[in-house]
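User: Sequence in, structure out. Go.
Assistant: Echoing your sequence, followed by the C-alpha coordinates.
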Amino acid sequence: MEEMKNTKNSVLAQVDERFGALTEEELGKKSEAIEEKLFEFANFMESQLSLLYTPLNSKIIQTESIIERTLQIEKGVILPVFTEAKNSFLLYKISDFAKDLVINSDGILEPDPGRCKKIFLEEVDIAIIPGLAFDDKGGRVGFGNNYYTKLITKLPETCRKVALAYEEQMVDQVHMESRKFTLDIIITDERVIYKI
Protein backbone atom coordinates (compact mmCIF):
# COMPACT_ATOMS: atom_id res chain seq x y z
CA MET A 1 0.00 0.00 0.00
CA GLU A 2 2.84 2.38 0.91
CA GLU A 3 4.58 1.57 -2.38
CA MET A 4 1.41 2.39 -4.33
CA LYS A 5 1.14 5.73 -2.49
CA ASN A 6 4.78 6.58 -3.32
CA THR A 7 4.23 5.63 -6.97
CA LYS A 8 1.11 7.81 -7.09
CA ASN A 9 3.03 10.75 -5.61
CA SER A 10 5.83 10.32 -8.15
CA VAL A 11 3.29 10.21 -11.03
CA LEU A 12 1.62 13.39 -9.72
CA ALA A 13 5.00 15.12 -9.35
CA GLN A 14 5.76 14.24 -12.99
CA VAL A 15 2.40 15.69 -14.14
CA ASP A 16 2.89 18.83 -12.01
CA GLU A 17 6.28 19.40 -13.57
CA ARG A 18 4.79 19.18 -17.07
CA PHE A 19 2.01 21.61 -16.13
CA GLY A 20 4.60 24.05 -14.80
CA ALA A 21 6.06 24.35 -18.31
CA LEU A 22 2.72 25.42 -19.85
CA THR A 23 1.40 28.97 -20.14
CA GLU A 24 -2.26 29.84 -19.47
CA GLU A 25 -2.66 30.44 -23.20
CA GLU A 26 -1.30 26.97 -24.04
CA LEU A 27 -3.64 25.37 -21.49
CA GLY A 28 -6.56 27.28 -22.99
CA LYS A 29 -5.77 26.04 -26.50
CA LYS A 30 -5.40 22.48 -25.25
CA SER A 31 -8.76 22.73 -23.43
CA GLU A 32 -10.44 23.95 -26.62
CA ALA A 33 -8.93 21.05 -28.60
CA ILE A 34 -10.21 18.52 -26.04
CA GLU A 35 -13.69 20.07 -26.07
CA GLU A 36 -13.82 19.90 -29.88
CA LYS A 37 -12.76 16.24 -29.82
CA LEU A 38 -15.51 15.47 -27.29
CA PHE A 39 -18.15 17.07 -29.51
CA GLU A 40 -16.88 15.03 -32.48
CA PHE A 41 -16.92 11.82 -30.41
CA ALA A 42 -19.81 9.61 -31.59
CA ASN A 43 -20.46 7.96 -28.20
CA PHE A 44 -20.93 11.38 -26.63
CA MET A 45 -23.05 12.84 -29.42
CA GLU A 46 -25.32 9.77 -29.53
CA SER A 47 -25.83 9.62 -25.76
CA GLN A 48 -29.10 10.76 -24.21
CA LEU A 49 -27.88 11.31 -20.64
CA SER A 50 -24.28 12.36 -20.04
CA LEU A 51 -22.75 12.42 -16.59
CA LEU A 52 -20.33 15.34 -16.37
CA TYR A 53 -18.54 17.04 -13.48
CA THR A 54 -18.04 20.60 -12.37
CA PRO A 55 -14.39 21.63 -11.96
CA LEU A 56 -12.77 20.42 -8.75
CA ASN A 57 -9.35 22.04 -9.21
CA SER A 58 -7.29 23.83 -11.84
CA LYS A 59 -5.30 20.75 -12.90
CA ILE A 60 -8.23 19.13 -14.65
CA ILE A 61 -10.20 20.11 -17.73
CA GLN A 62 -12.61 22.92 -16.90
CA THR A 63 -16.11 21.87 -17.91
CA GLU A 64 -18.36 24.96 -17.68
CA SER A 65 -18.21 25.52 -21.43
CA ILE A 66 -18.78 21.80 -22.13
CA ILE A 67 -21.83 21.70 -19.83
CA GLU A 68 -23.33 24.86 -21.37
CA ARG A 69 -22.69 23.63 -24.92
CA THR A 70 -24.20 20.21 -24.11
CA LEU A 71 -27.33 21.91 -22.74
CA GLN A 72 -27.55 24.12 -25.87
CA ILE A 73 -27.76 21.07 -28.13
CA GLU A 74 -30.49 19.73 -25.83
CA LYS A 75 -28.62 16.73 -24.48
CA GLY A 76 -29.29 15.55 -20.95
CA VAL A 77 -26.64 16.73 -18.46
CA ILE A 78 -26.30 14.92 -15.14
CA LEU A 79 -24.08 16.18 -12.33
CA PRO A 80 -23.29 14.64 -8.94
CA VAL A 81 -24.22 15.95 -5.50
CA PHE A 82 -21.78 14.57 -2.93
CA THR A 83 -23.38 13.58 0.38
CA GLU A 84 -22.13 13.32 3.95
CA ALA A 85 -22.09 9.52 3.71
CA LYS A 86 -18.64 8.11 2.92
CA ASN A 87 -17.94 8.08 -0.85
CA SER A 88 -21.60 8.67 -1.59
CA PHE A 89 -23.38 10.92 -4.07
CA LEU A 90 -26.71 11.45 -5.79
CA LEU A 91 -27.16 12.31 -9.48
CA TYR A 92 -29.35 15.13 -10.77
CA LYS A 93 -30.26 16.29 -14.26
CA ILE A 94 -29.82 20.02 -14.85
CA SER A 95 -31.42 22.10 -17.58
CA ASP A 96 -30.05 25.59 -16.87
CA PHE A 97 -26.39 26.14 -15.93
CA ALA A 98 -27.02 29.55 -14.30
CA LYS A 99 -30.16 28.63 -12.33
CA ASP A 100 -29.75 24.95 -11.44
CA LEU A 101 -26.33 25.03 -9.74
CA VAL A 102 -25.39 26.11 -6.22
CA ILE A 103 -22.01 26.24 -4.46
CA ASN A 104 -21.60 23.53 -1.81
CA SER A 105 -19.65 23.78 1.46
CA ASP A 106 -16.42 22.79 -0.37
CA GLY A 107 -16.84 25.62 -2.87
CA ILE A 108 -17.82 23.24 -5.71
CA LEU A 109 -20.78 23.89 -8.01
CA GLU A 110 -23.42 21.17 -7.82
CA PRO A 111 -27.09 20.77 -8.77
CA ASP A 112 -29.72 22.24 -6.48
CA PRO A 113 -31.80 19.18 -5.45
CA GLY A 114 -34.81 21.47 -5.00
CA ARG A 115 -34.76 22.43 -8.70
CA CYS A 116 -33.36 19.35 -10.43
CA LYS A 117 -34.65 15.88 -11.24
CA LYS A 118 -32.97 12.93 -9.52
CA ILE A 119 -31.48 10.37 -11.94
CA PHE A 120 -30.56 6.74 -11.35
CA LEU A 121 -27.13 5.35 -12.30
CA GLU A 122 -28.72 2.84 -14.69
CA GLU A 123 -29.93 5.74 -16.86
CA VAL A 124 -26.43 7.11 -17.58
CA ASP A 125 -25.22 6.48 -21.17
CA ILE A 126 -21.78 8.04 -20.90
CA ALA A 127 -19.80 9.21 -17.87
CA ILE A 128 -17.04 11.81 -18.06
CA ILE A 129 -14.77 10.96 -15.12
CA PRO A 130 -12.20 13.49 -13.82
CA GLY A 131 -8.70 12.54 -12.70
CA LEU A 132 -5.20 13.86 -12.13
CA ALA A 133 -3.23 11.34 -14.25
CA PHE A 134 -4.02 8.50 -16.66
CA ASP A 135 -2.34 5.70 -18.61
CA ASP A 136 -3.27 4.18 -21.98
CA LYS A 137 -4.74 1.09 -20.31
CA GLY A 138 -7.48 3.21 -18.74
CA GLY A 139 -5.70 3.57 -15.40
CA ARG A 140 -6.54 6.69 -13.41
CA VAL A 141 -5.16 8.60 -10.43
CA GLY A 142 -8.05 10.26 -8.63
CA PHE A 143 -8.29 12.87 -5.91
CA GLY A 144 -7.96 10.58 -2.91
CA ASN A 145 -11.60 10.71 -1.86
CA ASN A 146 -12.70 7.60 -3.84
CA TYR A 147 -16.00 9.14 -5.00
CA TYR A 148 -15.29 8.57 -8.67
CA THR A 149 -13.40 5.30 -8.13
CA LYS A 150 -16.54 3.84 -6.54
CA LEU A 151 -18.73 5.40 -9.22
CA ILE A 152 -16.79 3.64 -12.00
CA THR A 153 -17.67 0.22 -10.53
CA LYS A 154 -21.35 1.10 -10.09
CA LEU A 155 -22.04 2.40 -13.61
CA PRO A 156 -23.92 0.03 -15.95
CA GLU A 157 -21.90 -2.22 -18.29
CA THR A 158 -23.30 -0.34 -21.28
CA CYS A 159 -22.11 3.05 -19.99
CA ARG A 160 -18.92 4.38 -21.61
CA LYS A 161 -16.47 5.66 -19.00
CA VAL A 162 -14.45 8.50 -20.53
CA ALA A 163 -11.79 10.90 -19.24
CA LEU A 164 -10.87 14.29 -20.66
CA ALA A 165 -7.16 14.93 -20.10
CA TYR A 166 -4.33 17.15 -21.15
CA GLU A 167 -1.62 15.14 -22.90
CA GLU A 168 0.61 16.20 -19.97
CA GLN A 169 -1.57 14.06 -17.67
CA MET A 170 -0.72 10.87 -19.58
CA VAL A 171 1.89 8.69 -17.87
CA ASP A 172 3.50 5.31 -18.65
CA GLN A 173 1.64 3.42 -15.96
CA VAL A 174 -0.80 4.04 -13.15
CA HIS A 175 -0.55 1.36 -10.45
CA MET A 176 -4.04 0.31 -9.45
CA GLU A 177 -5.44 -2.15 -6.93
CA SER A 178 -7.82 -3.52 -9.54
CA ARG A 179 -8.52 -3.08 -13.24
CA LYS A 180 -12.24 -2.88 -12.45
CA PHE A 181 -11.57 0.82 -11.78
CA THR A 182 -10.31 1.55 -15.31
CA LEU A 183 -11.82 3.87 -17.91
CA ASP A 184 -12.80 2.88 -21.46
CA ILE A 185 -11.59 5.93 -23.37
CA ILE A 186 -9.36 8.96 -22.75
CA ILE A 187 -9.68 12.07 -24.92
CA THR A 188 -6.61 14.33 -24.87
CA ASP A 189 -5.72 17.44 -26.84
CA GLU A 190 -3.67 15.22 -29.20
CA ARG A 191 -5.52 11.88 -29.48
CA VAL A 192 -8.37 9.60 -28.49
CA ILE A 193 -7.10 6.58 -26.57
CA TYR A 194 -9.14 3.39 -26.43
CA LYS A 195 -8.22 1.12 -23.53
CA ILE A 196 -5.72 -1.52 -24.64
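User: And one key feature?
Assistant: The longest helix spans residues 2-20.
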